[in-house]
Amino acid sequence: MFKWDSDEIADDVPVTAAIDAILNLKKYSALSDLHPIDVKVSLDKDEPRVLLLDRFTVLKKRFLAAGITNPLSAKVGGGAGRSVGFEASPGVEQVKESYLARWDRYTSAHEFGHMLGLLDEYCPAVSPELIAKMYNEGQLGVDEQTLGKSAQNKKGSFLAPQTGYANLLEKTGQSAQAWTKPGAKESGERKTSLMSGGFEKSSVSTTSRSGKHSR
What we know:
By secondary structure, the protein is mostly helical. It folds into 2 domains: 13-88; 93-206, no CATH class. It is built from 6 helices and 3 strands. Strands 2-1-3 form a 3-stranded mixed sheet, covered by helices on one side. The relative contact order is 0.13.
């Protein structure tokens, strides 16, 4: 990625790809910029260690210029010489504590969402229309469209509501960004959306089955 013994970028493609991938996360969570990222910088043989921080600084400036505000940490990488890797930092304890401290508030907001006609997004997708929408949006692979045991058990209760909701999402131009995959286990997949057991009001969470946007 970098030129020998220099902080000048030799191949810009990996940098651009990393920036695009991180910015793309905002499609799925408005809180994605809160998650810390480890920037793992590797040196080639005989390169001075001072280049670790120099190259990290160059990448940090590129990220900031692209609109990425995630906390970044410089780490020594173990990859091939002059390469850089990007990984999500381990879970931050204060984020977990903040979530637990507001649990009652989140639960109330979740239940109010049901009063507006919103569905539980942590229940597996069972509707063919919803599954097709998730697949078309790139959220499911070809081999991830089969209903698991949990989804089979919920098919009777959720098939019709999910079908109507999928049609509404399509009509209003929303994505099924937080929905649990058809093959998920009984516990489901918890994401940041309020209707998925999280704490974030996404654009989907403002669309009710009445066909109107809830405020």
